[in-house]
Amino acid sequence: MSRSFNFCSGPAALPEAVLKKAQAELLNWHGAGVSVMEMSHRSSEFTSILESAKARLTRLLDIPDNYEILFVQGGASTLFAQIPANFVTDHKTVCYLDTGAWSAKAIKEAKKYADVIVSGSTKEQNYTTVPSWEELNLDPNAAYLHITPNETIGGLEFDDLPETDLPIIADLSSTILSRSIDVSKYGMIYAGAQKNVGPAGVVICIVRKDLLERSDNEALPSTWSFANLAKNNSMINTPPTFAIYLADLVFEWLEALGGVEAIEKVNEQKAARLYKAIDGSKLYSNPIDVAYRSRMNVPFVLADESLEQTFLAESEAAGLRTLAGHRSVGGMRASIYNAMPVEGVEALIEFMRDFESRYGA
């Protein structure tokens, strides 16, 4: 049976080579006689997997020595509350940029722990652009500044950072490992795995070690304390072992391709081709400021909304899966993460052209 091109925003497509390797190792991992799903997380076998994943991620992102890598359960949405719970401590305020649906959800959770200063917002512009860095309202005494550099639902992305002495905490769930970043500019990076890294069930956290001192707090639940997680090598309780194993295989696959710089070039190519097809069409359009269009999540709408269900039905039949936009905004959305090959994007473009030739005005 041939595989479809899966444009789901998450859980998203995994590299076929990774799936085949996991399949080959499923029953008997490296001669251990058991699957990774069956082995003790305290075993030497799984410890080697965990350490391999951390080492590969460190190489891929060139993570400095003064950062700790954590594998956390609960999903990135849980981190919306876990982050302020860990880092507010003696601070009274936190700063957040409001650039889309996910940053808005993070703000809502943070309000349960501190006074939230919305330092900049483009809600009035329907989240089609980003705030002006020069006009941000930043409290120098805030615990941190939280940003969401890629809004998965809206398809907005930015890669430059505001000038601030505050620790910058970034939700990179949709973009981690898709483009080059300077980890040293962040206080913390976190990313749900189910988009560019692996299956749902684990969140990668890269935390500057000086910030961990804030979370060494007896009042925090032990499984929520980043400091406690670091002290216990992410194994306070049973971690999501199989998700970490698959993440390690994805890291291995990415290294073999040439690392983040190599995949970034492919991602630039894929996004450029798809946006060119949209912009050259009379049927399709994308509302985002061209300077801030996401490379990973490409939303588009049809000039005739009545054609949407026909588009989705026919694209599904053509082997192009999960192109419906988020339920909150509608329209279409193609998520073209690292695992989506150029051939998949070309197949989508060809389908879009054919569809427009049959249904366009």
From TrEMBL:
Top-level taxon: Bacteria
GO biological process: L-serine biosynthetic process; pyridoxine biosynthetic process
Group of enzyme by EC: transferase
Protein family: Belongs to the class-V pyridoxal-phosphate-dependent aminotransferase family. SerC subfamily.
Cofactor note as given: Binds 1 pyridoxal phosphate per subunit.
A Pfam family annotated for this UniProt entry: Aminotran_5
Binding site for pyridoxal 5'-phosphate: 76-77, 102, 152, 171, 194, 237-238
Enzymatic reactions: 4-(phosphooxy)-L-threonine + 2-oxoglutarate = (R)-3-hydroxy-2-oxo-4-phosphooxybutanoate + L-glutamate; O-phospho-L-serine + 2-oxoglutarate = 3-phosphooxypyruvate + L-glutamate
Name under which the protein is recorded: Phosphoserine aminotransferase
Subcellular location: Cytoplasm
Modified sites of kind N6-(pyridoxal phosphate)lysine: 195
Cofactor(s) needed: pyridoxal 5'-phosphate
Function: Catalyzes the reversible conversion of 3-phosphohydroxypyruvate to phosphoserine and of 3-hydroxy-2-oxo-4-phosphonooxybutanoate to phosphohydroxythreonine.
Positions that bind L-glutamate: 9, 42
Assembly, per entry: Homodimer.
GO cellular component: cytoplasm
Residue ranges of domain Aminotransferase class V in the record: 5-348
Entries under InterPro entries matching the protein: Aminotrans_V_dom, Pser_aminoTfrase, PyrdxlP-dep_Trfase, PyrdxlP-dep_Trfase_major, PyrdxlP-dep_Trfase_small
Pathway, per record: Cofactor biosynthesis; pyridoxine 5'-phosphate biosynthesis; pyridoxine 5'-phosphate from D-erythrose 4-phosphate: step 3/5; Amino-acid biosynthesis; L-serine biosynthesis; L-serine from 3-phospho-D-glycerate: step 2/3
An example Gene Ontology molecular-function term: pyridoxal phosphate binding
E.C. number: 2.6.1.52
Alphabetical UniProt keywords: Amino-acid biosynthesis, Aminotransferase, Cytoplasm, Pyridoxal phosphate, Pyridoxine biosynthesis, Serine biosynthesis, Transferase
